[in-house]
Specification:
The protein is an all-alpha fold and about 70 residues long. It has a domain of about 30 residues. The protein is about 40% helix and about 0% strand. It contains 2 helices and no strands.
C-alpha cells in the first residue's frame, strides 16, 4: 500500500535498468520503489537541488522559494 502524501507516478523503464534497481534494492534491504526514490534524491543533490521541508512547494526552477 502506498504511503499517505506520496505522489503516484507510472514509469516506463527498460527491463534491464529495473533488474539492476531490484538487485540494488535487495542488497540494501529496500523496496524497489524506495531504491528509485533514493537514486532520484541522490541525482537531485548532485545537481545542487535541495528538497524543501515537507508541505513546502518548489518554484518553477525546482528550488524552494526564497532560496
Amino acid at each position: 500500500m502506498a504511503s499517505p502524501g506520496k505522489k503516484h507516478f507510472a514509469l516506463r523503464i527498460d527491463p534491464r535498468v529495473w533488474a539492476v534497481i531490484e538487485r540494488l534494492a535487495a542488497q540494501e534491504l529496500r523496496s524497489a520503489n524506495a531504491q528509485v526514490e533514493m537514486l532520484l534524491r541522490e541525482a537531485l543533490q548532485r545537481r545542487g537541488r535541495t528538497l524543501p521541508p515537507a508541505g513546502e512547494s518548489l518554484d518553477d526552477e525546482g528550488t524552494p522559494p526564497g532560496r
